Amino acid sequence: MNRSKHGPAGSYDGVVLRIRKNSAGTRVLTVFTAQKGLIRIFAGTVKQTAKQGGSPFLLLSDISFEAWEKDGGYTLSEYECRNSRAMLDLEWQTYVYSQIFTDIELALLPEAEADMRVFALLRAYCAGINTKDVRTATIVAGWQLVGLAGLFPDPENVYVYRDGRYANGMRRWHIGTARREGRLSERLSPVLKEQWESVCSYTWERGTTLRLTAAALQYLEEFLYSYVSECSERELKSLQLLC
Question: Which CATH superfamily groups domain 9-83?
Fold first, then answer.
């Protein structure tokens, strides 16, 4: 364990959810860690990392690292970064849906609250997009994050109303437990309700299958984005990437 004037560095394991640069050119990583939940790490400049011989940071990297904590901020010391095949061989659809997934994660989960269920789901998603359809994986993992946040709606007891469209043309919905006077609620088929519930119980083990109709997948995608935006009171900016 490394030491500095701030004392010994702590050891952490996490998944990189966002990579930004501040005005000084220092990279700031948003990482969900097993030990501390969602934290932000000052990771130096690209040149500093290159001099240290470190691996590049990519979205959804699996990272083990040491860092010093001061006043709620973390400064990176030694690290090992393992990038997924899907992110190394990046395709446009993978880029779009990985951005959407991290937006959902950051919208739903508070900072500095560790949750091993969330950590396990993040790792499962990162591994899953190497072999599974990234759109389906994002919809399933997104709804599972909603469930882990304690917000999963009961499909048998919700009212769903059309609420306009996003700029990209995708339908927007209001999903709630209260009836809107003078408005006609969308009729949800038994198949859609069943498949909606099934995504929350899906396990990511190799060989397990989840059968979703194309129509159900479209509804669940639209419902997910609308519901997360409404629950978090935060627009998912990455939806602009969907054409």
Answer: Nucleic acid-binding proteins (2.40.50.140)
For 152, counting Cβ atoms within 10 Å of its Cβ (0-12 exposed, 13-18 middle, 19+ buried), the class is middle
Beta strands in the chain (DSSP E): 3-4, 7-8, 10-21, 27-33, 37-42, 62-70, 73-82, 159-165, 171-176
Distance CA 162, CA 175 (A): 9
φ, ψ for residue 114 (rounded to 5)?
-70, 140
Task: Tell me the backbone φ, ψ of residue 217, rounded to 5 degrees.
Answer: -60, -40
Chain-wide mean pLDDT for the chain? 92
CA dist 128 and 32 (Å) reads: 18
| Domain 87-241, CATH | 1.20.1440.120
CB atoms closer than 10 angstroms to residue 65: 23
Q: What is the per-residue pLDDT across 38-95, written as a single tens digit (0 to 9) for each?
A: 999 999 876 666 555 566 799 999 999 999 999 889 999 999 999 989 999 999 999 9
Residue keyed to tokens 């849906």: 97
From the list 146, 121, 105, 119, the residue with the least C-alpha distance to 17 is 105
Per-residue tokens: 60: 């959804």
pTM (2 d.p.)? 0.92
Phi/psi of residue 129, nearest 5 degrees = -70, -10
Nearest partner of 141 among 184, 94, 199, 206, judged by Cα: 199
Would you give the DSSP letter of residue 203?
A: -
For the chain, where do the domains classified as CATH 2.40.50.140 start and end? Answer: 9-83
